[in-house]
Design a protein that fits this description.
The structure is a homodimer of 190-residue chains. With 190 residues, chain A is an all-alpha fold. The first copy, chain A, folds into two domains: 47 residues, Arc Repressor Mutant, subunit A (Orthogonal Bundle), CATH 1.10.10; 140 residues, Orthogonal Bundle (Tetracycline Repressor, domain 2), CATH 1.10.357.10. Chain A is built from nine helices and no strands. The radius of gyration of chain A is 19 Å and the shape is elongated. Chain A starts with a helix and ends with a helix. At the A-B interface, α6, α7, α8 and α9 of A face α6, α7, α8 and α9 of B. The structure holds a DNA duplex (30 and 30 nucleotides).
DNA sequence: TGGTGTGGAGAACGATCATTCTCTATCGTA
DNA sequence: TACGATAGAGAATGATCGTTCTCCACACCA
């Protein structure tokens, strides 16, 4: 097995285990066992657990945002419809087997106070998501697209937290309805 | 020192340390040192770390919700204003020194998959908050107060997560503005 | 064929942690 | 004052974890 394949297998195992059970609950030996990569190779690819966690978060960030953007690009019928498609994608995500909330919120709560690198990875993810939503609202004819994007971001995060803790994917519905109301109100200022 | 005082000091130390640094990052010896309660007494009051964590969460739940309800009761000028007062209280909370997000979201992400009791404490907190918000929206003349309460809950959770990760208390502002828009729209169905 | 380096398996190390145990001192009571 | 129970300090225990080290097998090259 070459170093590239080992890296991929390590990140796959890390994502599965860390996301499912939390970071501190998963030892490096579990990563070794689930990836089939020896400990020596593991520490060649990632010199510490923290670097492995950071790499897991950064890869997940990219994949998560690409999946969201792809869905919105493929399913939104208009620029006005795009922000609502975000919540359809969220609902599907919430309903996935093994959904356990936002990996960045979870790892931030667990290690944000201890590890600046993990805290920063979480901030980077949220910033990128905010930029994406601003891109969607900038295409609309509304007075304050940035504030609207911040409101949508608030709904996205809130729905994710509620879906995770309640275990009910329907948490996406009030969020989508709220987003629709905000969009309509932003289009027709009093 | 009697058992009651020991319990109080233990819960005080637990809340300070667990909230600030996360649960798994704080050992029982730290709780002993910061509370001034001996290990023997500690384990008489709480037979395991998990029971201490659960007690910390339940006490924090009550205090947090009472503080919110007191603020809203004291500052809301009308039933229509009450939901917005929630976000003023949130903003003040976000600006507190040592604010580090919602203790229940954090502990859920850290240990929800491992400890059913901690997961349940988080659900209980969110359910109680939802009931409180439903109480506020039930007093309004709106078509669907329960859905409105769920939307407010989504905004509350989202603002809390964003404020924690960004470190910026201003996350309360777009949430409050969104709440105002939703309230106005609920009062005047098209 | 012999030497060298790489990789894997897993033992070893050192630290930390939850929990329990030991020893000693203190205190209320007769 | 003498005794029995209780409490505190902190050592001990047993487990886990991140990380490193040892040992051996195998492949590549002269």
């Amino acid at each position: 097995m070459n170093a590239d394949e080992a890296t991929t297998r390590l990140l796959d195992a890390a994502e599965r285990e860390f996301y499912e059970r939390g970071i501190q609950s998963v030892g490096m030996d579990v990563i070794r066992a689930r990836s089939g990569v020896s400990l020596k190779r593991l520490y060649q690819c990632f010199p510490s657990k923290e670097t492995l966690v950071e790499a897991y978060l950064r890869r997940r960030d990219e994949r998560w945002r690409r999946s969201l953007a792809d869905h919105v690009a493929a399913n939104a019928r208009s620029a006005q419809d795009a922000p609502l498609a975000v919540f359809d994608w969220l609902h599907a995500w919430f309903a996935e087997r093994g959904f356990r909330g936002c990996a960045f919120i979870n790892s931030f709560g667990e290690l944000g106070a201890t590890s600046p690198r993990i805290a920063e990875a979480g901030r980077a993810h949220k910033d990128a998501l905010r930029r994406y939503l601003r891109g969607l609202t900038a295409a609309l004819d509304v007075a304050d697209p940035d504030t609207l994007a911040d409101q949508l971001l608030t709904l996205v995060e809130g729905a994710t937290v509620i879906a995770a803790m309640s275990g009910d994917p329907a948490a996406a519905h009030p969020a989508k309805a709220a987003a629709a109301t905000l969009l309509a109100a932003a289009r027709t200022p009093q």
